What we know:
homodimer
Amino acid sequence: MERHFEQELEEMKERLLWMGSLAERAVHQSVQALLESNEALAQGVIEEEPAINQMQMEIDDRVVQMLALQQLMASDLRFVLAVSRINADLERIGDQAVNIAQSAMRVVRHPRVNPYIDLPRMSRAAEEMVRDSLNALVNKDIEMARGVMLRDDQVDHLRDQVFRELLTYMMENSTVVFPAFELILVAKNLERIADHATNIAEDVIYIVAGRDVRHHAAK
Amino acid sequence: MERHFEQELEEMKERLLWMGSLAERAVHQSVQALLESNEALAQGVIEEEPAINQMQMEIDDRVVQMLALQQLMASDLRFVLAVSRINADLERIGDQAVNIAQSAMRVVRHPRVNPYIDLPRMSRAAEEMVRDSLNALVNKDIEMARGVMLRDDQVDHLRDQVFRELLTYMMENSTVVFPAFELILVAKNLERIADHATNIAEDVIYIVAGRDVRHHAAK
């Protein structure tokens, strides 16, 4: 019984990490599709979303099963509750990747807005935050989780730069209003991806240290 | 023991509804502040946010306590897990209200973009969704919850109209680019508020019917 339970916890974690790798790939490919005007790649991201949704429901079923059948110790309870929240964050990262892919498909129909300076930097920062938040989970690494939380402000700063850059283009040249608007939406999506990575990092700290560091109590 | 437990469930629900009423009021006041260029009202919304955050942590503590101390029946377990998710949605509705309040404070420094046609309609629709999702929770009313889910598409449609309207202004007159951009951000915030209300409605169905209707399985 004991062993069986440990094994279920381990399986749950593995499924969550698998889902994390799908979400991470979706983000990377959607941004690549946008920057390279690659419609087929964007289409691929959109087609993969149902698999991520399916996995979210499966992981949530495991959470309910575990809570219903086991009287958990405090530390295991924290872990299972955090899994449920991280699960929701990963699913929403997948949603944001789909939004970026949709923008990528619309933006190719407009004249290209050059140069994309801060958007690639912003996307690299957001992708790194997702990857590091999952690495922090695997290694129960509080320092790495804190590092993710601190980088959220940098992404917000890059977002403001992207906005300023694009609004200036719009004022100078009214024909770029539509494509520049799509890039504003993409910057909003990347901002939310970074927010979800921050949530995951907060949950890693909750799992490892047993402290609730939401609302920046840890900063 | 039995009675004590029932009482705790009831208290948890009351705290959640109180939090819901704070979030609902924050949304209403932030939109009002924007439409009436009322900076003091916007400031008030921003100052009330810590109270909502505090309440989220308190409710989550109750959730953990209840799961740690009680072996719950399936229906009570569903309720407690849904409370934890609804709690997170309400806190995020509060965050969005703060974003709208911040836009309201910036937008007063620019020339007024007239007329706001679809934005007030969109905000009324989003506010109604929040209110109805909470009413559906109070009354365990599945039909009302379904009604909320169906209206999410209407809000997305209004958002697209708001975008089109504002982008057209921007193309015609480059001096309105900045204030019109603020209103685009507000439309995005309202869209997310409607998304959170939809999540709450889905959780009401999960509580009452025991079915997971996320990813629109119920539609």
